[in-house]
Amino acid sequence: LQQSRPCGRQPPAPPAGSIPGPARPGTKRLPRAIVVGVKKGGTRAVLESPIARVLHSAAGGICACFVPPGGDMSPPPGACPSSFLSITFCFTCRSLMPRTLDSQITVEKTPSYFVTKEAPRRIFNMSRDTKLIVVVRNPVTRAISDYTQTLSKKPDIPTFEGLTFRNRSLGLVDTSWNAIRIGMYAVHLESWLQYFPLSQIHFVSGEKLITDPAGEMGKVQDFLGIKRVITDKHFYFNKTKGFPCLKKSESSGLPRCLGKSKGRTHVQIDPEVIEQLRDFYRPYNIKFYETVGQDFRWE
Ligand code: A3P
């Protein structure tokens, strides 16, 4: 994220309003919808579908919007935490959005928003009509996936078990560890519901996204108010990858699976630890199901 488009090198912020391009067709627009989370839930799989012209955070959209709390407009190069969304976002980010035709929509993805306290207020201030998409997955599996990813980059980190507990024999889970905290969906959702009605938030089941990608994407399309263009005929199950893949990618027209970082083999975890984590998450899961009115069957 930080290397792909350093903050300091962004073009000056254009004035508010749409910016029709001189040469290319389309208009740069604020995102109609944002995939706000969750990390390792399946967010990439949602965005890889050909429903939208997409700008996700890896393209640097949020980097340019970094305005330190003091309001200085020249952020330090490389310092691009997406949680620093500010009102300048409205102007700066629009300039970085891809051009879309009237028939297309712009969707942004920044999975860290869901667990960022400030994000709901700032997105609300940017545009209260923004639709929000949250891809959720069994929090225990999500935590293991998250840890597996970190381990692949930093092989020297402590064991999963070591990081999970403040006191293992007492079963005290360390909720300050991000891999654990992210999965407490009910807690994070509270902050969003202070600004957005539930009807403006769509929850995608990370599990169903794998077993029935067309069905799950169908619901996303309904939520976005667009025609159901993605159907079963767009997917095939790739046995080698062990996941659904697109029969034809938008860019090359060739079959396309997600990259190696999506669908890794998970680290083996002591079944007893998994059981303890299931117990830990159960009340949060139940609260989450009750709030959203949907049973994700993670028990
Ligand atoms: P694992 O790598 O643990 O299997 P994100 O894109 O939010 O980081 O989520 C990554 C997860 O997306 C993967 O986690 C994988 O389980 C899930 N996923 C869902 N659909 C997928 C697909 N078609 N191909 C690969 N991974 C997919």
Describe the structure.
By secondary structure, the protein is α/β, with parallel strands linked by helices. It has one domain (27-67, 81-292): Rossmann fold (3-Layer(aba) Sandwich). Helices cover 31% and strands 14% of the residues. The protein has ten helices and twelve strands. Strands 4-6-3-7-10 form a five-stranded parallel beta sheet. The chain has a three-stranded antiparallel beta sheet with strand order 1-2-5. It has a two-stranded antiparallel sheet with strand order 8-9. A hairpin with a 4-residue loop joins β11 (235-238) and β12. α7 (185-193) packs parallel to α10 (271-292). It is globular and about 65 Å long. It starts with 18 loop residues before the first strand and ends in a 7-residue tail after the last helix. Residues 1-21 and 52-92 have low confidence and may be disordered. The site of adenosine-3'-5'-diphosphate has 17 residues, from α1, α8 and β12. GO terms for molecular function: [heparan sulfate]-glucosamine 3-sulfotransferase activity. This is Sulfotransferase. 3'-phosphoadenylyl sulfate binds at residues 40-44, 137, 145, 262-266. Residues 1-28 are annotated as: Disordered. Its EC number is 2.8.2.-.
Compose a concise summary of this entry:
This protein is of the alpha/beta class. It has helices spanning 43-47, 89-96, 119-126, 139-153, 160-164, 178-181, 185-193, 208-211, 213-224, 271-292, and strands at 19-20, 27-28, 33-37, 53-56, 99-100, 106-109, 131-136, 165-167, 172-173, 201-205, 235-238, 243-246. It has a single domain (27-67, 81-292), classed as Rossmann fold, CATH 3.40.50.300.
